[in-house]
Amino acid sequence: MIELPEGSWWDWDVYSWRPGELILAAGHDLCYHHGLELVLTDPLYVRCPGAFQDPVFREPTPEERRLVERQCGEEPGVLLAFEADGGGAEPVSGLIAAGGLEVRVGWVRRYPADRGSAGREAAGRGSDGRESTGSTAPPPR
Question: Where do the domains of the chain lie?
Fold first, then answer.
């Protein structure tokens, strides 16, 4: 199960999804910036709303594990399961299988400050403006 760093991470969305990488972003208000990213490498299976609030991460059920293994043909390195407010009357269930996971903390501007390209604010972190809190690599085979 995932452990998130301290912070106000109630507002979430799919920030980026391109071949080989899915990024979920979180913060207290995603209008202008976010402060947390879950970077899932080599996503294999994704059942996740585009935007959601207050996720509660939990251990995947045995049925969810079997579903992913059947769909993907292998056990993934990372399997995230959660319940969240998806804006409807009932909570939504999320399930994401991927090769790896990295949790990044750092202020990320969602829109450019000027007409140039959007950049990450350094805020005393790394050269890319984020501080990695660690990663979860797939288990050895």
Answer: 11-134
Amino acid at the residue 109: R
Alpha carbon distances (Å) from 48 to 20, 77, 79, 99, 119: 17, 18, 13, 17, 27
pLDDT in tens, 74-123: 899 999 999 999 999 999 999 999 999 999 999 999 887 654 444 444 33
Please give the structure tokens belonging to residue 27.
Answer: 């913060």
Among 103, 91, 97, smallest CA distance to 70 is for 97
Fill in the DSSP letter of residue 61: P
Map residue 62 onto helix, strand or coil. helix
SS3 72: helix
**Nearest C-alpha neighbor of 97 from the set 55, 44, 137:** 44
The stretches of 9-137 forming alpha helices (DSSP H) are 62-72
Which pair of tokens denotes residue 86? 């998806």
The answer to whether the beta carbons of residues 131 and 106 sit under 8 Å apart is yes
Q: What number is the average pLDDT over the span 46-70? A: 96
**Pick from 48, 41, 63, 25: nearest CA to 96:** 48
